[in-house]
């Protein structure tokens, strides 16, 4: 068999582990040939690739980033993108393409699959918001990094007698906020799935101070928003330079809580540090298993499918299901977290 | 409600997180009273305990060990143990007992439950070998510690052009060996579930050297054994001081591989470092959820049950099932690992 | 002897290690009595303290923060502060006071010492900018945290083909920027000691892209400023809410470099995570030695002095010297760093 | 200039950082040519080398091991070794050779230097026992790894109510034992510089148990020995297989303390994990500075010298001084540590 692999979208710890695993399983166990496209779909559309043998993937298991590069190019966005891709797949004699990517990438994969290309997808997102799979690789690393930061911030908040509003990743879902907040013992967790009431939040944090505690940690997902009418909120409001970047939710919450509580409140934005660097053991194992099963699926002709974790098993699910809707934090999980706030 | 909690058996990262979660859920959300028995079942049998309120569990989430202490005392081993326990439960007016422990502890819990005591178990083992639950807390931390050690050992093995035989925990099952070996890119993984043939193992490692590589890492679970007749093997053979402790599998494998390969081979025994210290975020979240659900189960009268992870859900399963047999590494998981050796 | 100890100013990993060491050396080896004032100088001024015995400092060595609390209260700022302090020292029968703190604290210590109080200072700052000592505890931890973040950010910058401007602590000096930038292999390091020319900086980063590299990491100390006339710069300019906090140097540099380079540039502000949490082994050892020697100095009547590291020795230096001027990054150190940019 | 660099002896975190720094300083700032010999002195003796340009050292700063390989070959041990080396230096037109290594390597460097070869040495040892320099790179990483292990072992020792005897590296000196023991709050530290009296050690540990504590951690350097007549001690005694490896000091201490204290005692041997893997920020900075200054020394014709840290400065010291004697733990440092045991 001849297999093409590519990584697309934002950085995510574990990408290299998938690539390595695909190459090992395909080359060693099946005698396949593997090529890697550069910079995601761009490489496929421009026929920019290189062969991947065992040496090419030696030593990359624990490394962050992706040796193939990435981009946000999507075939559907380019006129004739699908046809170009189909042509290159034929020219290169590819029997399978394994795109590793997030929601956008999987939608593109689904589109190409519908158009008849032999696609086996591997889901990738630190946000953990892809339906059909219990967990995605990269999430555990992101939660680990956020938790370690929160562990450190706790002593500082305590020493300085402050409220710290810590913004973690999660534009549409609150998984990282939920898990890192639970793991670090945050005193409030704010997620996009439950628009917050600024009054209630103030009360929750205020209760801690009334009980004699001298600090509080609030974890907030970057995509969290106030309940309508709860407070003025400037989504993407521009700063003095015309950039949107300084008006995030943590900044606005810090200002609001400081005024309402009469306690010093400071925003901390963890940012990109959550999505780079060496993956945790958990993510390396999951990524390796995904790579293995993607090759198996290709060999069994199970195209139009996606690798997914269900319990302790890796199963194949239709790409169509995976992109149908986001996996959000269910009420029950939020309730579990609340008890220890 | 009045709830007694205890921790029993060996150290395991996440014990304190369970205790804290039990207290939070019970006290804050249900208005319960919680007491903690000292040193596992010993505390129950000798009525040695202390009240646990929110202050008592403040700041313990990320701490290793157990604030309640532990022991290997088992009620069934003591004459009249069950009756004594029953008497103290009555005297103390306990409505529920939540023992947190491994296989032995859960067997004792099952016994007491059969004898009519209101027990809700929480499984605990870094070995991950308890059936009925996908994962146990402590396992992720153990794998993380072992993987970090393996990451470090790799550069040393390479610089010194050696074979390193790294012994990880796992007396009966190879879960830690499998996961840390996969995560760190070991070149051979030896687990108790598959007695090894020393000839095959030598060949596998030898192939690396033939291919021009200058070092190899073999991960071996402490409970691994050779296939019968494959090599002389001294289970628990005594050393010159009359102690069994120096004749472990890594030591014997190092000697054997060195002779057969003609390459320097050294044993490294990771030991207790895998079972202590601060838990990973994964383990803190899982432990916290177990504690929450154990309290819920008690309030719903679901005694004789055990908290368990199934996929992303916490479910209650009969204690009888949990102790029926060990969860071993299935052949499929081992095959997945092999492709990247 | 009767010794009072206090911690003052911002959080700094190693504070608890000093407190523990003071208590151990004083109580165990000298049979002294030790009391700890709450919240820095406030505790002394308001006679708010507690006795510190061995149990009180058990288990705190590796913990961030300070068990005594801290504040920014300075005796000189309060009318009659010095007299009040003197009175309480007499009332409590204290033979020595050991304040642990940064520049402001040491100035206050110097003042009280001049006024005749028996003071032995211990320097504390993550910024490493106190003259008279080679290193201060907390600095190594801060550099370690920043370096780990930079290691992670590198793969993300590479995957996203971006310039990342990473702001680290250092209001007046660039020690953290210099060391973390060198340790992580940053491509430019910007420190307060050398106002930057935005043109030169653009050129330096631009050369990387011309050479075919796809990303760059710029480490910048929070106190860095452009050379006069080099670019518009808004020190502490207010944001739309009237707060100064969003107009830091990393934000402004990101905007400027993006425009000049035509490459996506993003600011990352590491913030408080650098000053909290468990200290590195290096900082624990240094802090422990400072505590030991502070007690020795007290017993030898060496008041008005400060513990300091010189090479591998702990020496005592006059408080007057320590507060005379900041220790800045010398040109030679900056030149060493440049070669690997 | 044409410079040859080589790494010799055991693995040590920071080797790659030195190599990278030598290449950057030499190539970028001086326009030199650099070659790297493979496997230490062997590469020089067999003229086995490769050119090192900026690409060759890209991405290696944070990596453990050495890209050049290492060996324990010493020129003086080979007949005609010095002459062979001299011949190759002439043939290759080398103006300077920078060997990076430990005691043995520096002795060889001294020998070659005496024979007229243009040598600038860089000291390397995790043991920190080279005189003339305050610290060697690799030491901080080793101490960090040992401290992290000790932090974890503490909770396990406590839960299991045991004495743990933790053996760390240090064949001739106790620096790692001293620093990791102080950093982790060990209850006894045993170093080669002070032969231990088993009776006194038993008493010291026993006092903890008498005081109601339930566990103890003893850190022991691998080269520690009992005071003569204090206990039977089998240096390098063979095990049942004729190997010396199982009769280390931790094992013998565990047996002895268990018998004398009547408490369970277990040995833990940290081993190679201390000398591999990614260096700490501290070690990366020190290694980078050493590389920079080695190139400067070569350009100033300062041959027969060694880079050394003195306070915060890098200075050059004669190779002769560096190899004259080991730097041992002075009594004063040991006394400082004792107060917190």
TrEMBL record, chains A, B, C, D:
PROSITE patterns in alphabetical order: PHOSPHOFRUCTOKINASE
Q: Subcellular localization, per the record?
A: Cytoplasm
Name the active site residues. Answer: 127 (proton acceptor)
Task: Provide the residue positions that the database annotates as binding Mg(2+).
Answer: 103
A single GO molecular function term of this UniProt record: monosaccharide binding
Gene Ontology CC, one term: 6-phosphofructokinase complex
Sites binding substrate sit at: 125-127, 162, 169-171, 222, 266, 272-275
Taking the first listed entry, what is the main subcellular location of this protein, grouped into a coarse class? Answer: cytoplasm
Q: Where does ATP bind?
A: 10, 72-73, 102-105
GO BP of this protein: canonical glycolysis; fructose 1,6-bisphosphate metabolic process; fructose 6-phosphate metabolic process
Keyword match Acyltransferase? no
The record's Pfam families line, in alphabetical order, gives: PFK
Name of this protein = ATP-dependent 6-phosphofructokinase
Which organism is the protein's source?
Answer: Streptomyces candidus
